């Protein structure tokens, strides 16, 4: 790859980082806190591309053959640089979705004991995150949940034996470390279950729980009274553990 | 499979250079290909630009055009859940690592261009027994993960820092900087001793590797790319030239590592781990291997370790010590920066010493 091509790859790479960072696209892959770093890196890559192109142009236009790549054969780039085209194509052309039910059913629930159980609003429906509900249900035996109408939002995943779970992937840095937190569904489950659909579940606490077949982690259940499909949230991952 | 499998365009270019490799640029030739400075790269000799020649800008344009044309079959091919997960994890590792790689590359370019070699000669102690722990402790000031430390260590070697010290820095920096230690404290709220154990074990192993290199290492194993500034280059030109070179070079190897990590995340079944957790010895080895293959950023690995609740704390410490020092992505980047002969010797030694250090520290602190 010569310097013009390198400069083009660097420019496109920087531009695609800027594109991902300025839209919500980056939230499918990394935590929200990485946005400023992404934008800065994109800007540096573009600056590098422009600087490369400028020095290259200056060298050829001044006829300084001494600094053209042919006279400076010290380091032609290895062919491995061509691989940088792959993330570019994957990000711009394919833009893969956030991790869904496939990884959720292959990975054990990663529920951890919460440090504290902040007080909940006294009246009305409880809007909880899947992680919050699961933590209170398992490690607080549902003390703060009994007798309340609860709303949870997550995507649907079906176990190998057909048990439906409402799942949220919890993320610490990037999708490579994302791990599911699962809540089992029982009661008036919707008749048609399509994995990866985002649902808002209305239901009540039930002490029923099972062990995740993958890692023996605890999976609490919720007694479903209603379910409606909702659009995927802006940030598909749960980032409460990032604080 | 992956998008780069298809391009017949650049194959032509490759085939001209190396008729024995019928592979396209997209195939993971990575560390297996001789990528040394001596290898002729295709088509960039502007000496005689015959009009019909397939130059690399042309190849790149054709490749991109082809991919845009083929994007709907490409999307269909990637619609299967396995391929979707693969692509998502691949893109995620790249996006997460690129900012840190860029940070490391900028630092390394600044060291290479603006810091005179005499600075390190004056700043660092001369005695190897001393310089190694000093360099190891200096790793604490590089805030970032392992992607940043490889180019910086490469620049240190080129600036005349003794390799033993640069390697101690390379190994300790991603594990003992404040960001990573804070993340560890957050991930293990009930086991604050994990933070201390991680710090001690990582520093210990980094110093041990530095001293080991000093005793046994040979300079001809290490092949830092000839990277010198040409006399005619201004400082600014040299800075940007170094930045461009390092991003293209280390970035290419980062892609290899990201592909390996994505493959394992998408394909390897997790229930293998459950069987391993029951035996204490197997548990340590299993998590050490897992740290190598998962290639998670050192700022995030503590959270993954915290979730592996079926394993002992010592096994999880091994995960945290091994991961930042050696994983697939790092191996690919080290092979690119220091040469394959170096990486094949250095990586296994690091792996063994890291496990030993973790077990030893675990026995004392945990």
TrEMBL record, chain A:
Ranges of residues in domain DUF1980: 138-237
Segments traversing the membrane: 36-55, 80-99
Keyword Transmembrane helix: yes
Keyword tRNA-binding applies: no
NCBIfam families: TIGR03943 family putative permease subunit
Keywords recorded for this protein, A-Z: Membrane, Transmembrane, Transmembrane helix
Taxonomic path: Bacteria, Bacillati, Actinomycetota, Actinomycetes, Kitasatosporales
Annotated protein name in UniProt: TIGR03943 family protein
Automatic annotation (TrEMBL), chain B:
A Pfam family it matches: ArsP_1
Keyword Endoplasmic reticulum recorded: no
Region (Disordered): 1-52
GO cellular component, one term: plasma membrane
Keywords noted in UniProt: Cell membrane, Membrane, Transmembrane, Transmembrane helix
Compartment(s) where it occurs, according to its Swiss-Prot or TrEMBL record: Cell membrane
InterPro entries in UniProt: DUF318, UPF0718
Highest taxon, organism lineage: Bacteria
Biased composition (Gly residues): 27-45
Membrane association type: Multi-pass membrane protein
Segments crossing the lipid bilayer: 54-74, 86-115, 164-188, 195-214, 247-268, 280-296, 342-365
Protein family membership: Belongs to the UPF0718 family.
Protein name: Permease
Organism encoding this protein: Streptomyces phaeoluteigriseus
């Amino acid at each position: 790859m010569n310097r013009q091509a390198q400069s083009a790859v660097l420019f496109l790479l920087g531009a695609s980082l800027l594109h991902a960072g300025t839209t919500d696209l980056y939230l499918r892959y990394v935590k929200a806190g990485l946005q400023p770093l992404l934008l800065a890196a994109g800007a540096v890559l573009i600056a590098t591309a422009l600087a490369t192109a400028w020095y290259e142009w200056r060298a050829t236009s001044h006829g300084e053959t001494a600094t053209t790549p042919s006279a400076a054969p010290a380091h032609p780039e290895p062919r491995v640089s061509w691989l940088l085209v792959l993330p570019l194509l994957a990000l711009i052309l394919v833009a893969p979705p956030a991790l869904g039910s496939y990884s959720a059913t292959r990975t054990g629930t990663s529920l951890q004991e919460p440090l504290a159980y902040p007080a909940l609003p006294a009246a009305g429906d409880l809007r909880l995150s899947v992680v919050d509900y699961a933590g209170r249900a398992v490690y607080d035996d549902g003390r703060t949940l009994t007798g309340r109408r609860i709303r949870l939002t997550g995507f649907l995943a079906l176990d190998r034996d057909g048990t439906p779970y409402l799942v949220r992937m919890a993320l610490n840095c990037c999708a490579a470390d994302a791990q599911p937190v699962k809540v089992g569904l029982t009661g008036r489950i919707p008749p048609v279950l399509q994995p990866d659909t985002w649902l808002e579940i209305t239901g009540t606490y039930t002490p029923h729980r099972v062990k995740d077949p993958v890692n023996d982690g605890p999976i609490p259940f919720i007694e479903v009274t209603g379910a409606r499909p909702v659009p995927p949230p802006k940030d598909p991952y749960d980032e409460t553990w990032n604080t | 499979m992956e998008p780069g499998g298809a391009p017949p365009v650049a194959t032509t270019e490759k085939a001209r250079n190396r008729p024995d490799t019928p592979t396209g640029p997209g195939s993971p030739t990575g560390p297996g290909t001789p990528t040394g400075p001596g290898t002729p790269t295709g088509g960039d000799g502007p000496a005689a630009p015959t009009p019909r020649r397939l130059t690399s800008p042309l190849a790149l344009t054709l490749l991109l055009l082809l991919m845009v044309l083929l994007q709907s079959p490409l999307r269909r091919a990637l619609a299967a859940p396995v391929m979707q997960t693969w692509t998502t994890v691949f893109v995620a590792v790249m996006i997460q690592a690129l900012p840190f790689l860029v940070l490391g590359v900028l630092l390394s370019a600044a060291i290479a261009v603006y810091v005179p070699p005499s600075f390190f000669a004056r700043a660092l102690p001369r005695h190897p027994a001393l310089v190694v722990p000093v360099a190891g402790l200096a790793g604490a000031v590089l805030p970032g993960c392992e992607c940043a430390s490889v180019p910086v260590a490469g620049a240190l070697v080129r600036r005349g820092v003794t390799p033993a010290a640069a390697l101690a820095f390379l190994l300790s920096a991603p594990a003992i900087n404040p960001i990573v230690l804070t993340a560890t404290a957050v991930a293990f709220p009930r086991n604050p001793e994990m933070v201390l154990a991680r710090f001690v074990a990582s520093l210990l192993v980094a110093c041990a590797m530095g001293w080991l290199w000093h005793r046994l290492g040979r300079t001809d194993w290490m092949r830092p790319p000839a990277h010198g500034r040409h006399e005619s280059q201004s400082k600014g030109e040299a800075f940007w030239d170094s930045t461009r070179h390092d991003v293209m070079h280390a970035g290419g190897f980062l892609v290899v590592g990201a592909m390996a990590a994505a493959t394992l995340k998408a394909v390897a079944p997790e229930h293998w781990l459950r069987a391993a957790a029951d035996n204490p010895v197997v548990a340590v080895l299993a998590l050490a291997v897992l740290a190598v293959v998962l290639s998670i950023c050192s700022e995030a690995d503590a959270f993954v370790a915290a979730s592996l609740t079926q394993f002992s704390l010592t096994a999880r410490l091994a995960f945290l010590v091994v991961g930042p020092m050696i994983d697939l992505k790092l191996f690919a980047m080290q092979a690119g920066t220091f040469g394959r002969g170096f990486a094949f010797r250095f990586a296994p030694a690091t792996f063994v010493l890291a496990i030993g250090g973790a077990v030893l520290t675990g026995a004392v602190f945990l």
